[in-house]
Design brief:
The structure is a homodimer. Chain A is of the alpha+beta class. Chain A has 7 helices and 10 strands. In chain A, the strands form 3 sheets. Chain A has a 6-stranded antiparallel beta sheet. The first copy, chain A, has a two-stranded antiparallel sheet with strand order 1-2. Chain A binds a DNA duplex (19 and 19 nucleotides) through helix 3.
Chain lengths: ~240, ~240
DNA sequence: GAGTGGTCTAGACCACGCA
DNA sequence: GCGTGGTCTAGACCACTCT
């Protein structure tokens, strides 16, 4: 029951068509779209309306437009994807990038909590990824990542995973992450935190739980990160 | 040296004029603007261009448009301002609202760190506000707030402060907060935290440092909040 | 110079709120 | 029924990129 509008503006319909084409992989990331003019003709709308659509999609990071060149499906390059969702920085603002150090990947049946988070049915399988990440050569983040196995066939057989998983999701599995809901809290470091993040007893860690949502509005990844925050902060700007 | 564009689109010029009028208080929050048509005539641009400007300002939360009624300068009502920048929630998503319980306000000379954060000169004075806030009747947040005294004359003499300070800044001092940069980290609760937030030794607290920026792009408020996070999280959505 | 997106215009008609 | 914002159109010209 999605709030029957009773009236659906043209530009909304065209918008949905384009989103669907990208979601279904008809248009691949990095490739260019036809020009504003030809798209407009093709879909039977005016150039002004088509422009409104393309501008909206650009604002939502799904497209990129470059004057004189064309309109392109946004690509989650390593750097881009990292900076888009990775919020850790030095106090004062300097952005940082993590390096992956080791990981274990396995497939197993989803637990109750995971089924709830990811809208899975009883008995469905998930991929579990556990990894530690370094920032400037020091252990900084312990991550537990849960994915619905059905969406990522064979991912556990890959020899290694890239630092930014979201570019992998996009290029290999056709899944575009467009939003992430994060919940942060503070906890006392556990014994395991102390060992793996090389911190002391009595230190606190920042715990970040993330639910990532795809273009098709499906809950695609659940992630819990435990962060050493001796000289790291989570930086965000609210508008 | 702001990146001389050498070319300044019409809509950008009009945009700046309107921002300036709001910033200078020519148009007051809550009041309505002239219609699109008359504004366009007044400024000598087409209605389409004026619409582009008004839509952009609406997207930035400076204006509100209501079909059939008109265009209004956005007002930081108590609720609005709270939900815009207050990110604490129950795990799982339920938004919460805090209540103020007590506060002390004094004016003093700025310390070095404060001068840096707020771009103040040596010897300038600041307002220091210390308060505790409750969530569902339990102490949840300890806040230290620093303001440049020059921007908030007489604020220390007010009998009490509202729960949402930003609506006060706007209505009484003509200062519109449009963005907040936040940096989060986790710390072990201090003895004072334990007492005032009613938590135990060895608990961790979430520390949120915020720098709030006004429409005139001036750094207007620096705030450090210490949050009991036994059943609270900081919730944010990244796009 | 040809092709792309970016800006700007002028005007028509639709949906909404209110008196 | 009038005035407001919301949608849609058709067309002109400007700025950027590449060849």
């Amino acid at each position: 029951m999605t709030d029957t509008p009773g009236y659906r503006p043209l530009y909304r319909q065209v918008y949905d068509i384009i989103v669907r084409k990208v979601a279904q992989g008809v248009w691949r990331p990095g490739t260019s779209l036809p020009s504003e003019q030809s798209l407009a003709r093709e879909m039977g709308v005016s150039q002004g309306t088509m422009r409104k659509v393309l501008d909206a999609l650009t604002a939502e990071n799904l497209l990129e437009r470059r004057q004189g060149k064309g309109t392109f499906i946004a690509e989650n390059t390593q750097e881009r994807a990292l900076f888009r969702f990775f919020r850790l920085a030095r106090p004062g603002g300097k952005r940082l990038t993590p390096e992956r150090v080791d990981e274990t990947v396995k497939v197993r049946v989803a637990r109750a909590a995971e089924r709830t988070k990811l809208d899975l049915a009883r008995g469905e399988r998930v991929v579990e990824i556990v990894r530690t990440r370094l920032i400037e050569k020091r252990p900084a983040i312990r991550e537990l990542i849960i994915l619905p196995a059905a969406l990522f066939p064979g991912i556990e057989k890959r020899p290694s995973l890239p630092n930014s998983l979201y570019s992998l999701y996009q290029s290999e599995y056709g899944i575009n992450i467009v939003a992430a809901h994060e919940e942060l809290s503070a906890q006392l470091a556990t014994a395991e935190d102390q060992q793996l993040l090389e911190i002391s007893e009595g230190d606190a860690v920042l715990v970040i739980e993330r639910l990532a949502v795809s273009l098709q509005e499906r809950k695609v990844e659940w992630r819990a990160s435990r962060v050493r925050c001796s000289d790291l902060v989570y930086a965000v700007t609210l508008n």
